[in-house]
Amino acid sequence: MMNKKRWRNYALWVSIVSQVLLLIQLIGHLTGLFDLTDVMKQNILTIVDVFLGLLVTLGIISNPTKPDSGGYNL
């Protein structure tokens, strides 16, 4: 059932990357490898917001120009 088109889905890769980052954050917090202050969290969140905004503006995350796709498939 797994086909190549599923792996070429933008939403899938955005979801996988976000889940991996959350897992890294959880492991770091539980093991004490790194502790982020509230200021550091806000700075990181701002950087991520700007980066995602740039991707949306460039049409990388959502590509509605393909008539046969729902906006996320290549």
Explain what the structure shows.
- The protein has 3 helices and no strands.
- The chain is an all-alpha fold and 74 residues long.
- The longest helix is centred in the N-terminal third of the chain and has 22 residues.
- The protein is flat, with a radius of gyration of 16 Å.
- Pfam families: Phage_holin_1.
- This is Phage holin.
- InterPro entries: Phage-like_holin.
- Keywords: Membrane, Transmembrane, Transmembrane helix.
Describe this structure in a few short sentences:
This protein is mainly α and 74 residues long.
Number of domains: 1
Main pleated sheet: none
* Fraction in beta strands: under 5%
Structural class: mainly alpha
Give the termini separation: 18 Å
**Overall helicity:** 55-70%
- Note poorly predicted spans: none
Order of helices and strands: HHH
- Count of individual helical segments: 3
Mean pLDDT: 75
Number of strands: 0
Shape call:
flat
As a whole number of angstroms, the C-alpha radius of gyration is 16 Å
Features:
74 residues; 3 helices; single chain; mainly alpha
Question: Secondary-structure blueprint of this entry?
Answer:
Layout (H helix, E strand, L loop, with lengths): L3 H4 L2 H22 L6 H21 L16
